[in-house]
Specification:
Butyryl-Coa Dehydrogenase, subunit A, domain 1, binds flavin-adenine dinucleotide, Acyl-CoA_Oxase/DH_mid-dom, three-stranded mixed β-sheet, 14% strand, alpha+beta, Butyryl-CoA Dehydrogenase, subunit A, domain 2
Amino acid sequence: MALRAGGRWARPGSALRGRCSGPRRAGDAPRHRHLREALRKIIDKEINPFVDKWEEEGQFPAHKVFKILGQAGFLGVDKPTEYGGMGLDFSYNIAVAEELGNVRCGGIPMAIGVQAGMATPALTRFGSHELKKQFLVPTIAGDFVACLGISEDGAGSDVANIKTTAVRKGDEYVINGGKMWITSGSQADWMCLLANTSKGPPHQNKSLICLPMNLPGIHVAKKIDKLGMRSSDTAQIFFEDVRVPCKNLIGEEGKGFTYQMLQFQEERLWGVATALTPMETIIQETIDYTGQRKVFGQPVLHNQTVHFRLAELATEVELLRSLLHRAVALYVEGNDVTKFASMAKLKAGRLTREVTDSCLQFWGGMGFTNEVLVSRFYRDLRLMSIGGGTDETMLSIICKYMDILPRK
Ligand SMILES: Cc1cc2nc3c(=O)[nH]c(=O)nc-3n(C[C@H](O)[C@H](O)[C@H](O)COP(=O)(O)OP(=O)(O)OC[C@H]3O[C@@H](n4cnc5c(N)ncnc54)[C@H](O)[C@@H]3O)c2cc1C
């Protein structure tokens, strides 16, 4: 591994040595800089040159890309060293997410997010040593592709209403039902599955289970054709009498809903972090384009309505970054940041739409083509308002924490 564990970032002679040569970005903490610099090299060499091709093909090769990232340590930045992680705190994971925003599409950072920060937090925190050796170690190394199976055809926002069951028979669970919208679903080696393991109350009858995806009875029904995030495969999956050992249960039976709500905190913070850099890139590319594109004898950028708007949007991005970093700092200290994570996710959903919409307009007809990044992010970042909980779900959570929801 190029990156070292236990708070030391680089072995002598590794790719991480040397100073960051790029300009200092806002929010780019000095302690994160070497990590980001090393990741940027991988993005520029191993990912960005192929993004257009993978977007066109509708899928990126997850095993190949994850192996490269895994070998360099980027899939286990905040995971324990005992399981191949770097043992750094969660703020380093967020620095990685911000840097991944330099990938010239949204689909690949999203799939990396599922691998490194959405399918694995509960396993890391509550899973048995054996389970971690079997699933976490190869996921951190990039040998396994992981997916997260929460949403269903009839239950997205309403997670408590999922119908998939895992019924105990001897020392096995027998799983029936199906999952919808599963990122990396058609390439995954295992799924962190949320299923009903009893008929009890909906918040106490669910469990998280590590489900190998090569078991008999698992059918990948279709790859979903989507508006954006085109290089990330999104699958619908059915389970028919799938048998999995009970030892694949993560933590305690019946605690799955609670574990998943905790897992969502990291997912949401990660999602916000990956959206910051694309917004800045789009604003900058719009400045560059409108600065040279002349209309009625002057650059488009020279109209006050244009440069004021761009300045306004850049300010909003910085505000979002501040909220994110505040939430992350509190999280690293061990606080429950559900409210702040939800606020940041809500704001990111709104702001990504505003930034991409305003910028696309300034490109005129060019903005409507597939040749410019702004149109790709106009589609991809739309998911910020949907995936991992919609804007309305975020508002409901914030209201709950403000104690202003009507009493039932
Ligand atoms: C590209 C993509 C990738 C995804 N990846 C994954 C994945 O890897 N794993 C996974 O489990 N899921 C995944 N999802 C699913 C995602 O989390 C859900 O789409 C999301 O939670 C919303 O659920 P839903 O689509 O069922 O919408 P619904 O729950 O049907 O919501 C419909 C509408 O109702 C609104 N609504 C909800 N509650 C309220 C309320 N209280 N008041 C007013 N309006 C409300 C919603 O905001 C929305 O506008 C993915 C989705 C997409 C599109």
